[in-house]
Amino acid sequence: MIASVFGGLRRRSWTALCVGILTSVAAQAASAANCPGHPDAIGTSRTIVVDPRAHPVIGTMQYGKTLPLADREVVLTFDDGPLPKYSNEILDILAAHCAKATFFLVGSQARANPEGVRKVRDAGHTVATHTQNHPGGMDRLPFDRSKEEIERGIASVTAALGDGSAPAPFLRIPGLRRTDEIEEFAASKGLQLWSADFPADDWRDVSANRVYELAMQRLERKGKGILLLHDIQPRTVTALPRILREMKARGYRIVHVVPATPDRPVTPTEPKQWQLHPAPEMVATSRWPKVPKFASAGPAALPVPALSDLDWHTSNLGARASRRGRSVPLPLVAPWSRQTMLPPAGTLAALPVPARSIFKTPEPAGMTLLASFASRAASTAQARSKEVSSAKLTGKSRRHGHTTAAQPPAPAGHAEQSPQSAGATAPKPAAQAKRNGRSVRVAGLKKR
Ligand SMILES: [Zn+2]
Predict the structure, then answer these.
(1) Which end of the chain is more exposed for a tag (fewer CB within 10 A), N or C?
(2) Each residue of 57-73: pLDDT tens digit?
(3) Tell me, what CATH number does 119's domain have?
(4) Which residues are catalytic, by number?
């Protein structure tokens, strides 16, 4: 019957199917073998050995690196214990699932309950540390205090272990309140700083069902990673069995992490396996680029420059004009309009006769011209008066002397007039200058 069903399959498909079936059976057998008496346990699929010095920080909630996990692999972590009432229940649940985890123990808790530390170790979990007193704002503590918290936490857990062994050189900062100094200090001590890939908010006042939902939803979004839980919360005790059952049902696997020792070589990995797996768009992260990518920002992304930044009306305009040629806009300004307060008409400054090229400037330049002195129309009118009555031209007017002959300024929005329309407003100066063969320069602008 089976042969007839699969008889039509091509040899390659048949082989692949067999391999798939065997793999699945083997995985279930391994899970069952890992957890005698608990056929439905998720078990622990594998153990990875890491070198903290090679990877001093991990966890995509804060870093661009995390553990080298395959898809659907999960690392369980529990913080803040040991607290007998709940920690023991967490240990029992994990034992019933043959799931191995990492416990970040608080030094003061370890001193109060050293037996709890030994229970974690004897159950085969990884014992790590979480400072001595779990300060709430470690990023605001004096650095010496932070160092002391870390070192005393390790000392307390070491004392609680009672066999001369030390906890794993894995450290989680309370509240993940890391600082550069703390990271550097941890690295100098050979400690691996563990952030996490996703929490389940079990320290908050939420229901156990909510803890379950957050754990599974965030895991689904990430696809794998370090789950941050707490073994001192009743809601975690309630949620954990359901989380483990659901993980197994959805095909997730538990991975246990231990530090390398002289007798325990590092699990071979590729550097890229430690790199941040691209987070889906819907996953919120706290990562920001350290260096803004100015190169990718186009002119439209630039802030509006202050008029004082431009300063083109006082210097270098002639040089820029000759350097860039008439067809190149002068100067570069942001391509959006702005509201600018113009001085009263009676106080408007007059410009000397502008060159024709001035009228070819794009709207922003014209706009700035308006913003700086007066409307182009006013300038043109002034220029016309100079051209027509050259005898009246005085040195004072060449130096932007005041005038009372200015026309009412045009609104700033009118700065988008084309050179042609500007010329239509006052065609005479340019035409007359052309007829006279004069090259009307902007040297007067340079004098100020
Ligand atoms: Zn904590």
Answers:
(1) N
(2) 999 999 999 999 999 99
(3) 3.20.20.370
(4) 79, 230
